[in-house]
Write a structure and sequence with these properties.
The chain is mainly α and 191 residues long. The chain has one domain. 72% of the residues lie in helices and 0% in strands.
Length: 191
């Protein structure tokens, strides 16, 4: 049985501003959103003030905001939007924390992380976000893949499924993204 069919129907009703749709959607996506958020926050440095539950709730509220209704064409589209919302929330949180903690001034340090070759600390998150925005302007699908992997914590097969692309294409785009971002982050670090 295709479990995404009821979800797709609810997403369609949500697009039509059906007030019941948001209530029906929550139980269908909550656990998956929570596991995405937990995986992403597990990569963060200890002492993170934003928990998985808070991240899920904030992302969900942004996704189903009736004043700014979004159209979701599929389950994959919804979870890609959720990954982007989580990314934005983490960036906003890091900016607020940075501004309060150090007066807003920041320096880039050596960047090292096995999955993307970057550190997910606050300073590096800004650099990754900036570079990812540049990549999105050139290669939107590749940038979405990075968001799903880096910010939502999905595996490559999970991200490929969400984007409805083959694993081979995902591997190729991931390799390209890692090299492109490494070059871009090195360039930023030198300036």
């Amino acid at each position: 049985m295709d479990k995404s069919k009821p979800l797709t129907q609810i997403l369609s009703r949500l697009t039509d501003s059906d007030p019941q749709a948001a209530q029906e959607l929550a139980p269908l996506v909550y656990e998956e959103l929570r596991s995405l958020a937990s995986a992403r926050l597990a990569q963060e440095k200890p002492g993170q003030t934003l928990g998985a539950t808070a991240l899920v709730h904030e992302a969900y509220l942004r996704l189903v905001d009736v004043d700014r209704a979004q159209a979701f064409s599929s389950r994959g589209h919804f979870f890609a939007a959720a990954a982007e919302a989580m990314r934005r929330i983490l960036i906003e949180s890091a900016r607020k924390k940075k501004a309060q903690k150090r007066g807003g001034g920041w320096m880039r340090n050596e960047i090292i992380d096995s999955a993307l070759a970057v550190d997910s600390g606050t300073d590096h998150l800004f650099a990754v976000d900036e570079a990812l925005s540049k990549l999105a302007a050139q290669e939107p699908q590749t940038a979405r893949l990075v968001e799903l992997r880096f910010f939502a914590g999905l595996t490559l097969p999970q991200a490929a499924e969400m984007l409805d692309i083959s694993l081979r294409t995902a591997n190729r785009q991931w390799a390209y993204a890692r090299a492109w971002l490494r070059r871009e982050l090195d360039r930023c670090q030198q300036s």
